[in-house]
Amino acid sequence: MTLEELLNDLQALVDQYSDGTEPTEEDAARMAELTDQINERTAQTAQAAQARNAAVANARAAIDAGRAQRVDSVPLARSANVAGIPGAAYDVTDYDKAERRAWAKGLAERSGIQLIGGTKLTDVERAAQRHAIEQRAEFTMTTENTDSIVPVAVQNEIISLIDNTAVLFGDISRTNMSGQVEFPRHKSIKKGDAAKTDEGEAPTDIEENDFDTVPLVGSEIKKTVEMSRKMATQSLSGFEQYIISEVSARLSVACNAFVHEKLNDENYGIATANKIQTAAVKKLTKADIVKMLSLLRSYGNAAAKGIIIYANNSTIWNQIAMLEDANGRSYFANEATDDPTIQGRIFGKVVKQDDSIADGVIKAGFPDLFKGNMFDGPDVTPYVQPRTQKRCFDGYVLFDGVLVVPEAFAQLTIKQA
Q1: How many CB atoms lie within 10 A of CB 236?
Q2: Could you tell me if 13 and 34 are in contact, meaning their C-beta atoms sit under 8 angstroms apart?
Q3: Strand order across the 361-365 sheet
Q4: What pTM did the predictor assign?
Q5: Among residues 111, 75, 112, which one has the least CA distance to residue 90?
Q6: At what angle do helices 3-16 and 95-111 cross, to 10 degrees?
Q7: Could you tell me if 279 and 287 are in contact, meaning their C-beta atoms sit under 8 angstroms apart?
Q8: Count of other CB atoms within 10 angstroms of residue 328
Q9: Is the pLDDT of residue 75 over 50?
């Protein structure tokens, strides 16, 4: 083993017990053995250096006396000769070895190892060490000046900064019938409702009802993405799948906006009497929320999800969450659930974040009583465009819906002026 290898082995053992623990008998014996070998090698090196220094001194004396034979070169590693200058001497110092000796002495001194020749650096070793430090300081490779060989790991995932939630659309009732759909509704009993009669008497009036039908014919919702064949080949391995998922998500967002549009329709949505404003300008009160909830009716129709309140993030946290009682206690209870759209509850009703709703608008109701029908889709069809070889992704939905009970939802708008 070389002196450097011996020192590395010893340093590894010293580092192993740097926490103050006692070394095992085997490791202690190995450390003693390595120390002896290092001392032996150091002594040999010192003797060789003395012999070489004596030879150099004799050579210099011969040069000065004019007895030395002139040579053209001195085969020394990194020698500092000054050949060509009359009367000059040759520096035959091997600076590589001198630097290694300086490093070994430094390691021995830090490790508490006693060397036969001591750990003090000679002038030559100090000069060699200083020269090595200067050489290393001239250029240090960093990730900035040598960035071309530093690999950049690109995650096979694209982080979406687009809101792809479709909250209300996810809560409503949906069927999947391909043909056109009609919802018959029993609007009222004009006369002849059940009533008390005298014994043996017939009802006063025969029932007369008011029915209507709401047709659903479907509205098309589409989205298309195109990419060149080169882009498809050279992009991230997950990019095409991301595009397919993104197109599908955006179709759902468009369907969510469509449901809100239908809620605002006078024939398919919320009853006019259920669209109210706050009593005060730019201020929401407990009375406003309670009034909105008091307008809701299900008329006994199945509504398993119950009443849900919908508003965008700004309205929830700047208006609803700020409602307090006389003692400063909030009516709004922050509630963490597995559903990230649920922000909390107020008066026992779930409050969901739906950013398809405008600022200052709150909607509440029975989502089960909005009946939607998915005639076709949602579907994302990938195909290759002839001649151009473009990769195309066509998304398509044929959808329609109606709030079958117009009083099943109410809308509260915060008055602005």
Answers
A1: 13
A2: yes
A3: 275-277, 409-413, 361-365, 308-311, 349-353, 342-346, 332-334
A4: 0.61
A5: 75
A6: 20
A7: yes
A8: 6
A9: no
